[in-house]
Amino acid sequence: MVALKTNDYQLIDAKPFAPNLGAEIYGVDLSRDVPDDQFAEIRDAFHKYQVLFFKDQKEIPPEQHVKFGKRFGPLHVHPAAPTMSGHPEIFEIHATKDSKIANGEFWHSDVSCDEKPPLGTMLQIHIAPPCGGDTMFSDMYAAYDGLSDPIKTLVDGLSALHSSEHIYKGRYSDRGKTDADIDCPQAVHPIVRTHPDTGRKSLFVNRTFTTKILGLSDSESDAVLAMLFEHTEHINYQIRFQWTLNDMAFWDNRCCMHRAIWDYWPEERKGRRVTIEGDRPK
Ligand code: SIN
Question: How many angstroms separate the alpha carbon of residue 150 from the centre of ligand 1?
Fold first, then answer.
């Protein structure tokens, strides 16, 4: 049996969610300003656990959500998604019986098609279906560590194109965003990136945005990407989070992927999402 990490903190309570990935965080009220010493522990836990689930929360006012996000760095504005009126940094996640899509239904790291993909994402859910609507996360450090040495050697030197036109075009038309209103960025990133804070290596490919490995033929690229997608989505690297109203999840896009499950139609699910600017993957 794997020993779970213990709570190392004085000002927050971090309860590990699974041996590799995730922690539930208790003892923090995100609807108010978080004191500096408590914030330092949250930041440490974010680097240790990759995704934090803040429990026992009240609804966080949009201004406070933006303010808390900015403590980790400047905020990222989504190139295509509908934003909250008066709050361009807030992406409203919303699915109803009339929606044609729910956001994030396939494995991805948020907006990995940007030159500088977001460091992390904070999502609070305000309207939850009676059951379902879970979010899955996959540990991309563990996925890299789980490759054999010859495949590590192969992918260590490779870069891949991340595109978004096939995802974003027409996607949000039912929410008032025409193709003229949006950007569809694309960028080339290393397949293996090193986390700027932890120094750990992780795989940085996902089936939503990663379309081609540079320097390989199309058939070689398709085969290697299919192998990497299947590997990174292995059940051993995953967790599945069941939301309670007003839970806030904060995930590190540099070392985990996520996927939202739309199993609750025709019920409604709604939340507010803030992303923090990242740097160019290295
Ligand atoms: C996303 O940000 O990709 C959606 C996550 C979710 O709705 O759970």
Answer: 34
